[in-house]
Amino acid sequence: MESPLPLHVCHVNNLSVILNKLHAFLHCIAIALLIYYRASYLLQETRAISIIPWLLVFASELLLSFIWLLGRAYLWRPVSRTVFPERLPEDDKLPAIDVFICTADPEKEPTFGVMNTVLSAMALDYPVDKLHVYLSDDGGSPITLRGMREAFRFAKWWIPFCRRYRIKTICPQAYFSEAESDENFGDSEFVTEKRKIKEKYEMFEEQVMKAVEDGEYGNSRNHSTIIEIIQDTSGENETIRQADLVEMPLLVYVSREKSPEHLHHFKGGALNVLLRVSGVISNSPYILGLDCDMYCNDPTSARQAMCFHLDPKTSSSLAFVQFPQKFHNFNEHDIYDGSLRSGYRLQWPGMDGLKGPFLTGTGHYIRRESLYGNFKHKGIDLAELKDTFGESNLFIKSLHQSYEHKNVNGENLSNVLQQETEVLASCSYEHQTKWGEEVGFSYQSVSEDFFTGFILHCKGWTSTYLDPSRPQFLGTSTTNLNDVLIQGTRWASGLIDVSISRFCPLLYGPSRMSLLLSMCYGEMSLFPLLYCLPLWCFATLPQLCLLNGIPLYPEVSSPFFMVFSFIFLSAICKHLQEVISTGGSVYTWRNEQRIWMIKSVTSHFYGSMDAIMKLLGLRKASFLPTNKVLDNEQVKRYEMGQFDFQTSSVFLVPMVSLMILNVAALVCGVIRMIAVGNWDKLFAQVLLSLYILIINFAIVEGMIVRKDKGRISPSAILLSSVFFVTFLFFGSIILI
């Protein structure tokens, strides 16, 4: 019998694999020679300079070499994939999907944008009776609930319009903002219909904005449970023509109970509440996770994901299909690396060749069963199930795949089911259960997505990465330095939480997954710490030694100078090659180098310290949502390619202090080379300061040249100067 056509195919770029391994081999040889040079100096009986700066620089070189070595695992076998959704079975045989959307603060996450994400999810090209959309409102805001009702009312016009004319941009805000490019534009009926839908959209926008102006934000830290299946009671159905009266996806508003006396575990806790509540309402076998600002940009993402989940060869072990995060608001400058190019164009495809990528917080279709641990198998008694999942008998019944609740009549919950969902969403339900530990999304880290994916891979599950030419999901990227660094601090803290716990990927992973996959998880969890420490060293110690005339690198005439030069140029050229090969430019490379340096000495450093303090019990875990409200002045500067330095002195002072130090070191080093004539001994340190200043010229420009509102404030420069003088004074005493 002839085998059916495949639902997807995998492509391996063999040339890229060969070049990556060749580069890694040559770079490793150079690192070995560097280690030999440093070690041989340390073994000398007499030394020309103090051993302290030498040891610190050597330790930093070892740390950078180690994190570089871990990162080679990404390049071991990168793959890409193609899917064939037209080969899927008929609609009546497709599995159901629940969509989870999380929002927490209507002030930082504008309600109108959140509702557009909800509408885009409802408009997915998928059987409507198998599509259920849940919104978790952790702020408990009446504004969000009213916005949901308005969104449902507009959806009755929007969804039939999208389906009838096969609209690809299914987010109404994006659709009505883009240039006229509809294939049906010449159709007079389409033009008339579009005009009518746009009028309805403007009414919807007006109603939501009015709700925002008139409504109350609520108490995000202390509120009771509200669960409501959204339905339209306005009677507007009468005005919709009979041909457009289509069935609507189920839309559910969930605001879990929150109390200051109970831990709520941030986004991970909200997702687990959605997991339980949806389990007794729709209990779909697959779940689409979305951030509230990450709207569906293509109606076919669900069908593309099902090409993997329904593949009989891989589906039994496949936990999730991950799509990349892409953004609609970053420009060609991308000065803050908002596109996350390295992650989604290199790291995720690389991991896809090693049993699958990380789980990211949005744009993934995850299998519900994978989140229930090993407790779904038959033979486990009821008492053990209740110890694991809680006291709800109805939820425990939902663990069986054949379970389908019959108490949802039309769009109303029965009284029994309403009470049950409120219990499942209460803040005390998880007490003395294994939620967040062995089942559901993990509470080990504020980066619940990363750690949950890691545990799934440790349990033997696999994942898949798909990056189609048309972005399946589009979100809002950060466009000012303050939000970039706050977000980076939160991410760094969450990653370091994992690396310094008993679940450290390099210790916990190798016995449970492949070594290469463990290296990928190890690199991702450790990079904030293993980059911030060496970069702080390389941005201060060689410069301090240069100011005091102390050489730290081989003379230009030494053969080992070529070794250091090769390592430096090899790393830079490899990064440039990766940028160019993924569609970037030299400016992209420069911007990524700069933001890497800035984050390493600020947000990665603070995030690492935050994680260590939490481990020592000196701090409690916290979560600050990224601001999604756009400031017009900041957006204008971003579009011009200008940094916006309106951020805290906590971030500014380290950056500015290091610039002052490197300027002083460069000037002093050049004078020393000319006056004393020992240019060959200090050349490498002068070159290092020059490179740092060239890459980070935007900071120098913000200090000296710019006079606009986004410049670095004089008070920050003054404070940084004091910090620089203090460091120079005590540092020189230690060296001398």
From TrEMBL:
Keywords for the protein's UniProt record, in alphabetical order: Cell wall biogenesis/degradation, Glycosyltransferase, Membrane, Transferase, Transmembrane, Transmembrane helix
InterPro entries the UniProt entry points to: Cellulose_synth, Nucleotide-diphossugar_trans
Top-level taxon of origin: Eukaryota
One GO CC term, this protein: endomembrane system
Pfam assignment, any one: Cellulose_synt
Record: residues binding Mn(2+): K267, D291
Active site (catalytic residues): D138, D449
Transmembrane segments: 22-39, 51-71, 650-676, 682-704, 716-735
Gene3D superfamilies, per the entry: Spore Coat Polysaccharide Biosynthesis Protein SpsA, Chain A
GO BP annotations listed: cell wall organization; cellulose biosynthetic process
Protein location: Endomembrane system
Residues where UDP-alpha-D-glucose binds: K108, E109, D138
Chief localization: membrane
Gene Ontology MF term list: cellulose synthase (UDP-forming) activity
Membrane topology qualifier: Multi-pass membrane protein
Listed name of the protein: Glycosyltransferase 2-like domain-containing protein
